[in-house]
Amino acid sequence: MFEDRSELLADNPPFRGYGTAVTVGPDGPRMFVAGFGNANRVLRWRGGTVVDAACGVLADEGRHAIGVAAADLDADGREEVYVHNVAAFGGTSAEADLLLDPTGEGTWRDLFADPVNRGRENYHVGRSVAAIDRLGTGRYGIFVTGYGAPARFYEVGDDGGITDLADAVGLDVVTGGRSVAAGPILSDRTDVFVGSERGANLLLRNVGGTFVDVAREYGVADAGENARGATLVAPHAAPTPDIVCGNWNGANRLFTRDDDGPFEDVAPPSLARPARVRTVVAADFDNDGRQELFVNCLGTPNRLLEYDGGWTQTGIGDALEAEGMGTGAAVADIDGDGTLELLVVHGEAEAQPLSLFSAPNDDDWLRVRPLTPDGAPARGARVDLTTADGRQCRVIDPGSGYLCQMEPVAHFGLGTATPREMTVRWPDGCQRTVTDLDARTTVRCPHPTG
């Protein structure tokens, strides 16, 4: 499947990194890579190569970044980037997080450093980060998992003040929180699955902007395992997406749900087989109209599964990385050719160069960019596509994998099928249907009130 494209990385020394998040700038996608004791990196396509554009506060050399996510917190139409720094295994850390705001002049500033936010910095240790539009307004908050400390949920007010609302909205949970997978899981808004270590997973249902844990009721608590990567996937475009949860040296899960009942684990042996799982990514890498699951492992071979009525293991090609110390991974069409690139970050046990892979193909594709009323990426929106071959579904990623966040675009491989109809459903319940679709195009889809 995959071919190694790492030669496109203009400067790729050994690097200790963890999570990566993809945001969209005026010059295309940017992949923010968290540096653990190294400078953070911001990768973008320029002149036929992938270059590192990080400098100043973006690079932030010396701290230990781990989880990262992007979202528009101040409703200005541009995404901020939240960087979770961890200088301890659990509890509290000596290093504060960053909330990086683009100024519109090509520079960035840390909102936590503003005088109005003095004393509001986050020193609680967690792992993954996700963007949550809890009220469906298009104005996001940032959820930071807690590891031996209460989780945080930050929103930004009109005065630029950052407030932790976790206790007010039911997100001040204390777990061994490792991963987050967010989207319209149970409600029409953004719900949150938290994969936990040394304890039960959480499934936080959004009830009018506050959250209630229903993991045990819905059968996904799985307290005997130690979760790592998690993602949402809907191969049949079912109303409720499946939850894929990779566990560390334990049985991996594929939680699926029919009608209004609980989830059941239906993971086939090829997925369930234990491994040293770090992150899990769902995407249509080869544009054949069916998503694949990339399972990234630490120091053992990675795994790729394809869907054809069920999940089966398939050839992974150059992305096997049998000795790769993988920590995080994310997807984006970084060079704009209609085929996704997969970036794998290493560094858990030793410094290793980044890896970049793709699956070259000649199949058609369609990309959809839902926007908030303010014109920012609408993370948490669901996009359903009908083609001559059937239906597909994607969720614009608020946060998933492990420590990571995918590009804010619904990428659909088409194979040779003709796209017929596309429907976007935003976290506030608004919908828009488009029938005038052409293959090999990117559809920009404004919010109905934007």
Describe the structure.
With 450 residues, the protein is mainly beta. Helices cover 4% and strands 42% of the residues. It contains four helices and 35 strands. The strands form nine sheets. A four-stranded antiparallel β-sheet has the order 1-28-27-26, with no helix packed on it. A four-stranded antiparallel β-sheet has the order 2-3-4-5, with no helix packed on it. Strand 30 (382-387) and strand 31 form a beta hairpin. It starts with a strand and ends in a 5-residue tail after the last strand.
Structure summary:
The protein is mainly β and 450 residues long. The protein contains four helices and 35 strands. The model has no long low-confidence stretch (mean pLDDT 96).
Task: Please compute the radius of gyration using only Cα atoms.
Answer: 20 Å
Instruction: Give the overall form.
Output: globular
Q: How many helices?
A: 4
State mean pLDDT (0 to 100 scale): 96
Helix content: under 10%
The biggest beta sheet is recorded as: 4 strands, antiparallel
Tell me the β content. 35-45%
Number of strands: 35
The termini sit apart by 40 Å
Order of the strands making up the biggest sheet? 1-28-27-26
Q: Class by helix and strand content? A: mainly beta
Low-confidence stretches: none
